[in-house]
Amino acid sequence: MTIAEESRGTGTKTVLLVQETAPERASLCHRLERLGYRVVDAERGPDGLRAISAAEPDVVLLNVLLPGLDGWGTLGRIREVSEVPIIMLTPRSSEVERIRGLRAGADDIIGKPFDDVELSGRIESVLRRASTVHGDALTRLANRRAFDEQLESLLGSASPDEQLSLVLLDVDGLARVNEVEGRAAGDDALRAIARIALRYVRADEEVYRVGGQRFAVLVRGAPDAAVRVAERVREAVREAPELLPTLSAGIAGWSDDGRTGAELLAAADVALRVAKREAGDTVVPYDPSLTGDAEDRAPGP
Q1: pTM of this prediction exceeds 0.85
Q2: Is the pLDDT of residue 60 over 90?
Q3: Angle 65-242-101 (CA atoms, 0-180°, nearest 5)?
Q4: Is the Cβ–Cβ distance between 63 and 43 less than 8 Å?
Q5: CB 122 within 8 A of CB 178
């Protein structure tokens, strides 16, 4: 029985770790095994490439600094033969480095040092996005089903004094992009916005594609924290090197704005529609005084 077959039989996820430095490789292997993953390790890029077909890993942790064929070169070679989720490990946790990795085909980037909570969270996040059940094929984000399940889980386990907020994001003018530049250009814009959004949420937050041009983020905190998340993403999209459509956002908080998932979605949707009517590229928190016509009050993404 191969490692891949054994891993699938037990439900344990296999992580391929490509890391040259022996002490760091041994330490990371131990940490990953302690977190419950099965680990296959490789010292160099070509070794990692061979392990892709031999071990069929569920996710790859690929160090940027490798001798010979470095991490970027290895990433490109892997992408020629596999869509396996790849998380780059880099000593430079800079915005330039993150953009380079995501554009090159990485699913996420972790800047060193990182703790086990972040490591596990990042791995589970990319695995969830890659799932055929919970993943969106176009953007490789978690999909509406994953969002609904997570929202139900969070609300079901929340204590009365716990704070949870919802960010609904909508792409401004995407229909115009599709009409003028073609559907492929619109799809490229959605993928670029998805990559940017992933960079500007915290490690314990997930970005979901919940509709054709709508995204959602569940924030553990009050609505003002969700506003900050939405503003970071909105401003990053507006300032992206490539010319992208802007984003509008609506914010709602549990339980002041809604006690159920449906109520929370409806409140965020009203705020989002107000943001769209105000010419877009803005963030609007829900308030009971917000009004709109019947269409504006239609709940859900």
Answers
A1: no
A2: yes
A3: 15
A4: no
A5: no
